[in-house]
Design the sequence.
């Protein structure tokens, strides 16, 4: 069973991901994720979640992102570019504060995100 996805399908996922965040629709964002999805970000411990920087499962994602959305009423992502591989998409965007971020999203055979990683500039 191949896990290879068409580049256009993965690019569409990346655009949908940005649109869902810009709509501030957490449940719409979560429909893009597998129930057992794992997310890693340096913002996770900063918001009082797992010190490892990783949350696991949709319930944990909902709690983390729900808190983040409450703290960021002006949240907005401006898509810069999308990078694809056979099983992932990297969404390169600028947030409402002018910070550039790459979000790595790996998908399963069903096209649902199983692993995410927010990558920020080191400086």
Sequence:
């Amino acid at each position: 069973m191949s896990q290879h996805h068409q580049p256009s399908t993965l690019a569409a996922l990346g655009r949908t991901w940005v649109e869902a965040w810009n709509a501030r629709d957490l449940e719409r964002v979560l429909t893009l994720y597998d129930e057992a999805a794992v997310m890693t970000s340096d913002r996770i411990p900063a918001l009082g979640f797992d010190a490892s920087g990783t949350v696991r499962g949709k319930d944990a994602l909902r709690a983390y992102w729900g808190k983040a959305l409450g703290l960021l009423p002006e949240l907005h992502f401006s898509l810069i570019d999308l990078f694809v591989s056979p099983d992932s998409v990297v969404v390169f965007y600028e947030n409402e504060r002018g910070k550039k971020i790459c979000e790595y999203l790996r998908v399963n055979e069903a096209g649902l995100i199983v692993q995410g990683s927010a990558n920020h500039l080191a400086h």
Residues 41 and 83 are 19 Å apart (CA to CA).
